[in-house]
Specification:
- There is one protein chain.
- Helix content is 25%, strand content 26%.
- The chain is of the alpha+beta class.
- It has a single domain, classed as q2cbj1_9rhob like domain (Jelly Rolls), CATH 2.60.120.620.
- Strands 1, 2, 3, 4, 5, 6, 7, 8, 9, 10, 11, 12 and 13 form a 13-stranded antiparallel β-sheet that branches.
- It is globular, with a radius of gyration of 19 Å.
- 32% of the residues are buried.
- InterPro entries: Pro_4_hyd_alph_FE2OG_OXY (IPR044862), uS12_prolyl_hydroxylase (IPR051842).
- This is Proline hydroxylase-like protein.
Length: 279
């Protein structure tokens, strides 16, 4: 059996800080020197029993928290940790705790990482057959905590997944000229990457599982208190792939124009109703 990477106890979900930091050092150089931006893909990341317990929890899924159905992301559902069964919910808390934060800091070289207690955008993500997520860069500011987004961590839950079933995680170059890396969303595979306004990624290949199973992942995001109010915040920046049928996100373009020319307090009051009207 391959050696696991993150030393978490499957029963207590506790991890030893020193062991976590020591293990992270094995991956620091690979992460920090990766191209086109810092990232890493690690297999056998957690003790297998941890994710077996998560799969058992997910046999009975809660009410869907957020559903995405548009040209850029379709047939995608997010479940927030608070609504998940106890074991999976506690795993999210464990991955927001000091040992894992120090693991990430040691591996990435980013000091002062802050977990998100609100799990904004995080949770268990499910993509059904016919679903996809176009190439994009993520929002850069946590609007509630006013902190800068720095890292994404994804842990996949899909046993025996094949590349031809779609849903592979893709990393693209900063000029959006071509795909640089592609990772099949295999069970217990972890992908972590640094988030910037040009760290383009996604899973644009449509999911097509022969038994209609969903593509599932755990997603968490981490921040630093480095936001400068002189900078411009943005939401998700979708980028069409060259020579593809990908659609531009005109709704976000309209919102960006509105944000640019509207006082912040007024913008916050009107954007919700306008979004519900399809603005």
């Amino acid at each position: 059996m391959a050696q696991l990477v993150y030393p978490i106890n499957p029963d207590s979900l506790l991890a030893d800080v020193d062991a976590a930091r020591s293990m992270a050092r094995n991956y620091a150089e690979a992460y920090q020197s990766a191209s086109p931006y810092p990232h890493i893909c690690i297999d056998n990341f957690l003790p297998e029993q941890v994710l077996e317990n998560v799969l058992a929890d997910l046999r009975n899924r809660p009410e869907k928290e957020t559903t995405f159905a548009r040209a850029q992301e379709n047939k995608k559902v997010s479940y927030v940790p608070e609504r998940l069964p106890a074991y999976t919910k506690n795993l999210f808390y464990a991955l927001n705790s000091r040992p894992f934060i120090l693991f990430l800091e040691e591996m990435t070289g980013i000091e002062g990482l802050i977990p998100d207690p609100f799990f904004f955008g995080a949770g268990v993500h499910e993509t059904a057959n016919g679903g996809h997520l176009d190439i994009h860069a993520d929002f850069n500011l946590h609007s509630k905590m006013k902190v800068e987004r720095r890292l994404n961590t994804l842990i996949y839950l899909n046993k025996d997944w094949r590349e031809e079933w779609g849903g592979s995680f893709e990393i693209w170059d900063k000029e959006m000229k071509g795909k640089v890396h592609s990772f099949t969303p295999l069970f217990n595979r972890m992908v972590t990457f640094s988030t910037t306004s040009d760290s383009f990624h996604g899973n644009p290949s449509v999911v097509n599982h022969p038994e209609d199973k969903t593509r599932d992942s755990i997603a968490l995001y981490y921040y630093t208190a480095t936001w400068d109010e002189s900078r411009k915040s943005h939401s998700t920046l979708f980028k069409p792939r060259p020579n593809s049928a990908d659609k531009k996100d005109y709704a976000e373009i309209r919102r960006d124009v509105l944000r640019e020319f509207t006082p912040p307090m007024l913008y916050r009051r009107i954007i919700g109703p306008l979004s519900r009207l399809g603005f």
